[in-house]
Amino acid sequence: MPSLYLCCTSHMKKTFLLLLSYLALANGSKAQTPTWSETIAPIIYSNCTKCHHPGGLGNSSFLDYADVVARKNSIKYQVENKIMPPWPGDPSYRHYAEERVLEQSEIDAIVNWTNKGTPEGDKSKAPAKPVYKSNSKIGAYDLKVKIPTYTSTATTDDIYRCFSIPTNLPANKYIAAVEIIPGNSKIVHHVLVFQDTTATTDNLDKADPLPGYTNFGGTGSNNSVLIAPYVPGAEPVIFPTGTGVKMYKNARIILQIHYPAGTNTEIDSTSLLIRFTTQPSVREVFIAPILNHGNISNGPFVIAKDQVKTFYQSYTVPVNVTLLSIMPHMHLIGKSIKVFSKPISGDTVPLVRINDWNFHWQGQYRFQYLQKITAGSKVQSIVTYDNTINNPNQPSNPTKIVTVGEATTSEMMLTYFYYMLYQTGDEKILQDSSLLTAGFFKPSTHKLSVYPNPVKDVLYTGVDLQDASVQISDNLGRVVLEKTFEKYNGMDKMLRLMTINVNDINPGIYSVIIITKSSGKIYQSKFIKE
Ligand code: HEC
């Protein structure tokens, strides 16, 4: 250690000592037993109660201390095994906008708290309970589509019901925002929204005496195209300003809704809100299953009974494109999927990895910043299906040969890409609103401790940040400082720290976001500039 000081100015030494005592403090507080009021409630309120509040799916509310204590073992089990919060994407592969992932320190805190007798702690320090409303989050909208009142008949089997609704749209328009509002959030497990300009789905709907018709995989029409998925707790999809998905004149909207077994007699009337763009020129966002049954390199797409089989898909991207999000789609015997892009030169770009596919939690993985894919890149996937009886999601007993189709017992191998043609600067477009409004109830990214706070000139962080970029924004979300760090130098290198000079920004409250490029990890904190 003493040799470290040889090169240091007295200012650096002072900072280093301050920093050591700060880190020691941080460690010291970790050793205490966490309490509900100070540690657990903030974790539960930012990661769980969005779904677990009265009237939410599953009907278990975690708003009150007593509710959580009553389910402590179940909660401990679910978080330790990473079943809850539901997020099949592997966070060690890639991070996304509004992801539902607990940090290991948060899991440890819940386990530790449960093991130490769930102390409540000082009630006055507990955060206010979040309030959840069922009204729209996108605000103004141009089109509202609502399914007819439907009474679930799902007794022992899950039901997948499609509702085909006319829009009577007089001309093509571009969708700026889409929001799905479950009519009965206790029973709506997922929704897929499609559009279709043919009458096929209308005919299917008319042929069934009850509202809607039953169809598992898609809509039963080859012409319908996906617009958006919904799972409980999902935020509305808002496309970056000036971009949008084309909606066709006179298109019908088809909502495919999953009602789980045991929801019979419950009534639903889910609705969909769409806001169209108002800009005179719009960049079109395309949604297409770029990886599909046509580009499997080791086909045919047939999985024999009792077989575990892996398929490979590859597609060469002809032009520079910008990805907004990615959404893999398989049915029940899908096991795992990894999607990545290999540019002609340079590193592989991880897109998504799901190690334990869960049909019921399929959804869109939106990139925190838009992702550029360069022309000539090979977008590839490796997809495994488990058609044995050991697969807990196996729908057939005895097992049977599986091929492509929309039935519960058939399979699909699609990865939808939301993309547009690349324009310079796209990779700087932020989609993760939680990164700009560092509010308490926003999904947490990796928490960052900055020091000193309030700060006068130089802000220190305790994170290894080689090859990172930094963005500081004011409380209106305006970026006031942007910087990319490539290499460490001097003191920073030794301490594995990064310093940000904030001398030039005006006094006020700021949010700092740090992104490490290699892992895509995002760290965030607020600080006060004096
Ligand atoms: C996106 C919505 C969502 C989020 C976020 C979520 N859950 Fe759940 N949770 C569910 C649903 C839905 C079920 C019912 C089982 C299923 O459908 O997977 C469930 C079931 C459970 C269960 C088992 C049933 C019960 O009530 O005892 C526990 C425990 C649980 N969740 C704990 C948590 C915890 C702890 C968090 C936060 C760390 C969390 N969940 C976050 C939706 C969510």
Give structural attributes.
530 residues, Jelly Rolls, 5-stranded antiparallel β-sheet, 28 strands, binds heme C
Short description:
This protein has 530 residues and is an alpha+beta fold. The protein has eight helices and 28 strands. The chain has four domains: 32-125, no CATH class; 143-281, Copper type II, ascorbate-dependent monooxygenase, N-terminal domain (Jelly Rolls, Sandwich); 288-428, Jelly Rolls (Sandwich), CATH 2.60.120; 445-529, Macroglobulin (MG2) domain (Immunoglobulin-like), CATH 2.60.40.1930.
Structure description:
The chain is α+β, with helices and mostly antiparallel strands and 530 residues long. The protein has four domains: 32-125, no CATH class; 143-281, Copper type II, ascorbate-dependent monooxygenase, N-terminal domain (Jelly Rolls, Sandwich); 288-428, Jelly Rolls; 445-529, Immunoglobulin-like. The protein is 15% helix and 33% strand. The protein is built from eight helices and 28 strands. It has helices at 2-6, 10-31, 36-47, 65-70, 72-80, 104-115, 200-207, 490-495, and strands at residues 143-146, 150-151, 159-166, 173-181, 190-196, 213-214, 225-230, 237-238, 243-247, 252-259, 267-268, 271-276, 283-291, 308-316, 321-329, 334-342, 349-354, 365-373, 378-386, 414-421, 446-447, 450-451, 458-461, 468-474, 479-485, 498-501, 508-516, 521-529. Strands 1, 4, 8, 9, 12, 13, 15, 18 and 20 form a nine-stranded mixed β-sheet that branches. Helix 3 (36-47) packs across helix 6 (104-115). The longest helix has 22 residues, at 10-31. It is globular and about 70 Å long. The two termini are 33 Å apart. The model is unreliable at 1-30 and 437-444 (pLDDT under 50). Heme C binds next to helix 5. Heme C (HEC) binds next to helix 5.
